[in-house]
Every structure is written in structure tokens, then in C-alpha cells.
Predict the 3D structure of the following.
Amino acid sequence: MAPKTVSVAVIGAGMAGRTHANAWRQVGTVFGTEGVPNVRLAAICDAYLPFAESAAKSYGYERATADWHDIVAADDIDIVSIVVANRLHREIAEALVKAGKHVLCEKPLTDNLDDAKAMAEIEAGADVVTGIGFGYRRHPSIAEIAKLADEGSLGQVMQFEGRYWCDYGADPDVPIAWRYKGPMGSGALGDVGSHITDVAEFICGPIKAVNGGTFATVIDKRPPAVEGVSGGRGATTGAEATETVENDDIAKFNIIFESGAIGSIGVSRVAFGLPNSLQFDVFGTKGRASFDLARSGEITLDDTNSPVGLRGPKQVLSGPDFPYYKGGSSMDFSGVGNTQIEQFTYQCRAFLDSVIGLDEGLPPVPSWAHGYRAMRIADAVARSAADGGATVEID
Ligand SMILES: NC(=O)c1ccc[n+]([C@@H]2O[C@H](COP(=O)([O-])OP(=O)(O)OC[C@H]3O[C@@H](n4cnc5c(N)ncnc54)[C@H](O)[C@@H]3O)[C@@H](O)[C@H]2O)c1
């Protein structure tokens, strides 16, 4: 029988940590209440205590701590979201799993392949629920396009063209942060490229190989960070730029799917004027579907259903027939739309369902093994780039 209460903690109270904190707070407000336990908001941790304290206050968590070991040691916590720098994921995840906690870890799984492999192995030997936060799978408009592709409404899918262009690093005065450290491929590719690549596989199936891997680091030095920088956005120090940027500002590569479809992906963190531009087009033999995060509440469809002469791209508003939409908000009718924020809530609900064994038809959160596979794709892009754009198979 499902427990009456489950207790949750969030490690990391930066940009995405606050979004997890909010999602756990909302998790019982969507898709009905039957079989859903009380979710107790137990603790928020951030190494910079003022962030933990303000997030705990804003989102109604009972306590705040600066040391993640407190969360590991706490015997009143069942589920933990890890939402800190990628290089910290493995150590924290390992300790939490050992302590018997269910762990939802943010993407990318880590910042290097060895740690990602280790996490997949930890998962295989664990008797707790583990998952990775590829939350765009829960965006109603993206999930609808995946459904259209899967049911054959677009015909045979032939091409996927995706981009995730952001400008959080466009200003050279934005200080150094964890996002700018690590091997090539752990920059824009790991940060936002992991999302759009996962969306590509979600819609078109497994990627078999990549080629044309290319990286660019446009701003190679940044000023030092002030205490408690979050999200890598906006904060400037005015100090001289002395810290070295180690990884990619821009990444581009081609993809070859197992199905025979092909495509390309381009990602950036220095795309001037585009704070958060995830866009893609999927072309099939009988139709085309497109999505733009800036127009989150709609998809663009072009197919053979309209009479010849009246064909062309049409705007389809997201609505209750799209996945996650019905019951997914307090205003679940067409035209209201959803944002990136709600997909975190749906993700937490799916994770909660797995923890308590409740089947509400929500697809489970992807595993750490899947996260390891995603890291192998990123590694293949890096190897392609290092070898002049050579084709590299995903092993
Ligand atoms: N799924 C998504 O849409 C999405 C969006 C943004 C970020 N992310 C992921 O979330 C993670 C965090 O990203 P972010 O943008 O929130 O970063 P961030 O820099 O805004 O926040 C990270 C926080 O971790 C804290 N921190 C640093 N070391 C710590 C430690 N040892 N213990 C506890 N806290 C510590 C920092 O003080 C900071 O507040 C990354 O893995 C990132 O890839 C996912």
C-alpha cells in the first residue's frame, strides 16, 4: 500500500533547484489526487546558505542546510532531487542511493563519461528509484509531436533539425561558473545540447551515429565569480577577465538515426538576444511538425489532410487532447498553454508514481542508464570534432 506521506528534499537552490522545489510543491495539484500521498517538503540544501534559506522560505520547505551530507544522513527524507553542477552529481547520487533515498538527478548525468558509467552501475545495483531530468519529454507540445511521429501521422520521419540557442554567456562580463569548466562537449553541448538531442531521440528514435562535430569557444576568458552566482545569468562583476573558459560556447553536429532518418543539431550559449530558444522541425513523408519554445502553447503542422491548394503550415493550439494537458493545470483548456515550468511538475509526478507504485499512465522518468547513453552521444560528438568531423558510431 502507498505510504500516507513521502518526504522530499532538493539539493541545489539555484535556477533549476528552485524549479524542482516548486515542482515538488505542485506535484499533488495535477492529474487528480487518487492514490497520491501527502508530499512533505522537508529540506533544501545549497552550499551558499542564503540561497537555501530563501528557497525554503519561498517554496515552503521546513528546513535549509548548506551541507548535502545532512540530507544523506536525514532519516526523515525519502526522495531527493540533485540540482547542482554536473561534476557533483555522481558523489552526491552515490551517497544518497547508499542511504536508501530515491534520486531524481538533473541532466546531463555528469560532466564525464566515467562518472556517468559509474552512475548507471550504481543504478543497476540499487533497490531505489533513480531517474534523470530530461523534462522536455513532458512538454505537452513536444510530447504531442512525438505522438504524431509515433503513430505515423507524419508518414515516415526522414529529417530532424533542432537547435537550442541561448544567450546566457553572450556578455563577456558574465562571470565564470561551473558551466564554463570541464572538457569540450561539457559546455553548451552538455548544458542545452543534451536536451535537444534527447528531444530528437524522443521523437525519431535512437541515434546511431554522429558526424560533422564542431565546437567553438568564442569568449575564452571571463571575470571571477562573486559569491553565490546562480544560473550563470546576468550577474557581472566588473573585474578583469582572468579565468579560462574550458569548454564549448557553440556546438554543431549531424545525426544519423537507426531508422535511417538524418538531421542536425546546433546549440549555443552565446546566441545574442535569444535567452532560451529551443526549436525544431520534424519532416516526414506525409507531413511536417515544428515547435518553438517561445510559442510554447502551440505547434505548427503541415500535412496532407487539407485539400490540395489549401495546404500549408497551420497553427494548432495545445489543448486537452495533447499529452499531460488535461488535468495538468488549473486552467486546462486550449489557448492557455504550458511553459517549461510545468514540465518539471509532471516529471516529479511521474517519479513519485514510480516510487509509490502508482500507475497513472505517465511514462517513467528516463533512467541513469539512459543518461549514460546520452553522455555517449555527447562523447561521440566530441570525438567527431577531434577527428575533423569524422563519423562516430554510438556504442
Ligand atoms: N532540466 C532543465 O531544464 C535544467 C535547466 C537548468 C539547469 N539544469 C541542470 O540543473 C543543474 C543545476 O543547474 P542550475 O542552472 O540550477 O545551476 P546554478 O548554478 O543556478 O545553481 C547551482 C547551485 O548549486 C549550489 N552548489 C554548489 N556547490 C554545491 C554543493 N556542494 N552542495 C550544494 N549546493 C551546491 C550553488 O550555490 C548554486 O546555488 C545542472 O545539472 C543543470 O544542467 C536543468
Notes: Residues 11-17, 45-48, 51, 68, 83-86, 88, 106-107, 133, 135, 177, 191, 228, 230-231 surround nicotinamide-adenine-dinucleotide (CB under 6 Å). Residues 140-295+297-337+373-386 form a domain with the Dihydrodipicolinate Reductase; domain 2 fold (CATH 3.30.360.10). The chain is about 30% helix and 25% strand. The longest strand covers residues 207-216.
